[in-house]
Amino acid sequence: MLDTCKPKSACNLPFVYNKKINTAGTSNADVPLADPGMYQLDITLRRGQSLAARDRGGTSDPYVKFKIGGKEVFRSKIIHKNLNPIWEEKACILVEHLREPLYIKVFDYDFGLQDDFMGSAFLDLTQLELNRPTDVTLTLKDPHYPDHYLGIILLSVILTPKEGEHRDVTMLMRKSWKRSSKFQTQSLRLSDVHRKSHLWRGIVSITLIEGRDLKAMDSNGLSDPYVKFRLGHQKYKSKIMPKTLNPQWREQFDFHLYEERGGIIDITAWDKDAGKRDDFIGRCQVDLSALSREQTHKLELQLEEGEGHLVLLVTLTASATVSISDLSVNSLEDQKEREEILRRYSPLRIFHNLKDVGFLQVKVIRAEGLMVADVTGKSDPFCVVELNNDRLLTHTVYKNLNPEWNKIFTFNIKDIHSVLEVTVYDEDRDRSADFLGKVAIPLLSIQNGEQKAYVLKNKQLTGPTKGVIYLEIDVIFNAVKASLRTLIPKEQKYIEEENRLSKQLLLRNFIRMKRCVMVLVNAAYYVNSCFDWDSPPRSLAAFVLFLFVVWNFELYMIPLVLLLLLTWNYFLIISGKDNRQRDTVVEDMLEDEEEEDDKDDKDSEKKGFINKIYAIQEVCISVQNILDEVASFGERIKNTFNWTVPFLSWLAIVALCVFTVILYFIPLRYIVLVWGINKFTKKLRSPYAIDNNELLDFLSRVPSDVQVVQYQELKPDPSHSPCKRKKNNLG
């Protein structure tokens, strides 16, 4: 395979320096090469020239891979329809042995198919001068066709020695996306960002409003457009708007701003084509350094390499309260800081910055009994703390199965219904990190100030894996702000795994939906049995109830009945007659799915027949997702009335009380009149407002049965309790 081929000698390496090497300088040939982790290689991937055409249109969609010792250490972004691409991407790589050359491979991206090889080259690291920037030109070759000219790649490199400096600093996680022919998986990579205590300096809030006069890509003279955004390693993909050249998206999302000077947002527009590669509509960029802070900018961007405009609203705001510190620096233990935080989220400050709902402090103390990930019988664990799109990392504790991190992370809470995810990984230098375990903790289930041992779960959060992690979490929030935020759209995660087809997942979703439908079917059978007088006493009671309700019916009785149902379930729970049952069926299905996922991971390199019929696969994934949405909708309604999340059930009671009072005292015609006036004038009052359905937004915060199982806390081994551990240490 091409990934494993090595050059026979340095003489045969196909690269040429643009700058001549100073013979008086320090050459790597005189430096001891056996010391692992001694060198840092900073590479800027500049551009390519005269690359090979691999598509039928006479162009290619090139991207570049860097490998050392057979391990992929960097992958560039894709430049579409260009044989002279400009990347200007930087990579920072730790090098253990300079005698291992850097292997550069160029591919043409083909959606849904195997990417085409466009050439490769080797960079001999022993020929680089230390601490000296060098421009390098690499001639691409194909080992099978050595006489074919495949173009050149231009790099800027600098190699610096690392004197065993400690990488025990707090790091941010950068997620690098790997594509495979079957599905996308995400992996963690070490990068220069990892080795810095580097927090984002601000928030870029983007609202994608609309597109105007986009290029027609389909035979019907229309397109099915969607838009991709990229800022550094952060990505976002809009929804698809079918059959239109003037799409109205009305989507809002946030990116983190890491650089003082701003950065560049790359934007590409695409036409969705089922079963084949999506068509490129055009591209544009937003230079954030040219925008003023704390102000909303309306941008109308002309699409390059295509037709039409995109309309955006972009706002740059200062960074929220996000920080990393040692246990000695504790905001909540400082009386003045604690009072300031409590004042910020007091009931008196309801309308001050509605997006700032609360404050979260997470103490990541230690872990015990972790899984062995290295051949040495140890692991190099580090911990990732995630709240929606906010991701922070601890330092790595090397060669340890019982690491102590003793770090404090603070976040601003934008949605009290968010779930805190804490994941432990094993660091593997310059390669994908190994998963060791994970916990997911809903913010509303947290007990403040309590140090707890959480049993680590598998990737699907369905069962335990080896080890526990000790966390102490505090949540302070404004309940009124949290309630108001419940009625607006939920924040979408812009870094997620792609949906993939799974027989077990499809079956699970079908069974879940069938159970929801069967509730309605059984209710219909029950009503019909009353009409058929199968049970005369029951039918007589139903007939009397029907006459009474119809004769006395008023509209306010609808929310009143729902209110009574919630109240009835509440009294059942507090009286000990809990009608909520643990869904063992869903849990069993989740465990079966995990086994299938493990099998899929082992066979991920094998290409099955299903990977080659993407049209059918896409339809199956759509059916799978629709079944999940329908089943989740029914389960969320059930879990609202079952008091699965008490905060949401109390909020439903307040809303139903308000609706009952309004419908009782205000005539229906006035209510409909106010609703109609609001609908007709909304576009005039706020032309760029994002439409939403408050009821659906509320239900999106209620967990489905699957999520209830995933968020369920497992009971730790009694030997892992903090008190027991202290006694053992004293002993």
From TrEMBL:
Annotated protein name in UniProt: Multiple C2 and transmembrane domain-containing protein 1
Main location: membrane
One GO biological process term: regulation of neurotransmitter secretion
InterPro entries named in the record: C2_dom, C2_domain_sf, MCTP_C
Sample GO molecular function, one term: calcium ion binding
Gene Ontology cellular-component terms listed: endoplasmic reticulum membrane; recycling endosome; synaptic vesicle membrane
Transmembrane segments: 540-573, 647-675
Topology in the lipid bilayer: Multi-pass membrane protein
The keyword GTP-binding is annotated on this UniProt entry: no
Domain C2: 20-138, 184-301, 335-456
